[in-house]
Specification:
Number of domains: 2
Strand content: 15-25%
CATH superfamily of the largest domain: ATPase, nucleotide binding domain
CATH class of the largest domain: Alpha Beta
Distance between the termini: 16 Å
Strand order of the largest sheet: 5-4-3-2-1-6-8-7
Number of strands: 14
Structural class: alpha/beta
Shape: globular
Helix content: 25-40%
Largest sheet: 8 strands, mixed
Length: 402
């Protein structure tokens, strides 16, 4: 069964073709900078990667480029698009309506549109991708896989904000959480590596990238996560500051800041970028730190401290820990950040092997154990593979729909 995974953003289209039951994609494509003067189409197959300049004005043209690439003689992925039997779509926000992936129909599309108020930079483009696929392959089932769905298992005392009860119900204000597809994937990968049923494990997943979040997982279920109504809550990120006293925003409003200015401040100008004044990239922050840049040193320290703070809270909530998982671009590739996060947590059983951590290389599909001998919990690197998880979720949703 051939499944096409679609991740459609405001200026990018990422797609992967899977031939089930194979776990690795046959073909991967990424069209970036859509609508700009320099769009680029990167294609990856078993034979390697290739970058193609292209003229792409909008999402519709991006889907045309995807179609041509998939059926081109040069790459040989498909002879015809009719070989595709299902499409799995990443959708960022499903609100409180979806606790699992679901086959797309008009009602699902309407719900995705309604949830755009909570994810205006994502949901409209996710929906545009769904509609373009329906034009391209009418009659082929599509499945919506929501970033928020995994966290719908959180108890009410965890997800509810201490605001007026009726207001929260009326406006659907609550903690939803994000990165759920990857948090679920790495928890299952850890269980397989540990050779234990997921139902018996207590895990903490640290998804550290330009967007960062943590998740406490008990018995395969999300019991708490650091992001909230939007991805602004929680850890320090590339351009988002995470937890903040709402009074700061009220103060800025009284000083004359508009809602649009505060939105930009919170989403685009804070986090690592805001603290360093230079970059949202952790690699640059670490490099500047090594050169003695005090603001970069501060940014890294704040980033690490927030992770440690959540780690202690989540161990308390879980009542124990079997594995501490690093994933995402920073979590997978920065031995420095992993070391700084784990240093000082020895009193709760987290013992990192300096040598294993330094030598670790994240390879998609593999799990790397960087624990010191005798460490309990295990410390694992699990490379993110959201496309693989979306494929699984797509098949499961289709099976439920039959």
């Amino acid at each position: 069964m051939k499944v096409l995974v679609i991740n459609c953003g405001s200026s990018s289209l990422k797609y992967s073709l899977f031939n089930i039951p194979e776990s690795r994609p046959l073909f991967e494509g990424l069209i970036e900078k859509i609508g700009s003067a320099t769009p680029l189409h990167k294609i990856t197959t078993a034979g390697g990667s290739k970058e193609l300049p292209c003229d792409v004005k909008d999402i519709a043209e991006a889907f045309q480029k995807m179609e041509h690439a998939l059926i081109s003689d040069e790459f040989g992925a498909l002879k015809s698009l009719n070989e595709i039997q299902a499409a799995g779509h990443r959708v960022v926000h499903g609100g409180d309506r979806f606790s699992a992936s679901i086959v797309i129909d008009k009602q699902v599309k309407d719900a995705i549109r309604d949830c755009s108020v909570f994810a205006p930079l994502h949901n409209p483009y996710n929906l545009a991708g769904i509609e373009e696929m329906e034009k391209l392959l009418p009659g082929v089932p599509g499945v919506a896989v929501f970033d928020t769905a995994f966290h719908q298992s959180m108890a009410e005392h965890v997800y509810r904000y201490a605001l007026p009860y009726a207001l929260c119900n009326e406006k659907h204000i609550r903690r939803y959480g994000f990165h759920g597809t990857n948090h679920k994937y790495v928890s299952l990968a850890a269980a397989m590596y540990l050779k234990k049923p997921i139902t018996e494990l207590k895990l903490i997943s640290c998804h550290l990238g330009n967007g960062t979040s943590m998740c406490a997982i008990d018995g395969g279920l999300s019991v708490d996560t650091s992001m909230g109504l939007t991805p602004l809550e929680g850890l320090i990120m590339g351009t988002r500051g995470g937890d903040i006293d709402p009074g700061v925003l009220l103060y800025l409003m009284r000083e004359g800041s508009t809602a649009a200015e505060i939105d930009s401040l919170l989403n685009k100008e804070s986090g690592l970028k805001g603290i360093t004044g230079l970059s949202n990239d952790m690699r640059e922050a670490l490099s500047l730190s090594e050169d003695g840049n005090e603001r970069a040193m501060l940014a890294v320290s704040m980033f690490v401290y927030r992770i440690k703070k959540y780690t202690g809270a989540y161990i308390s909530i879980l009542g124990g820990l079997d594995a501490f998982i690093f994933t995402g671009g920073i979590g997978e590739n920065s031995d420095v950040i992993r070391s700084r996060v784990c240093t000082g947590l020895e009193h709760i059983g987290i013992h990192l092997s300096g040598a294993r951590n330094k030598e670790a290389r994240a390879v998609r599909g593999n799990v790397v154990d960087i624990s010191a001998n005798g460490s309990s919990p295990c410390i694992l690197i699990v490379p993110a593979d959201e496309e693989r998880m979306i494929t699984r979720e797509t098949i499961h949703a289709l099976e439920r729909h039959q």
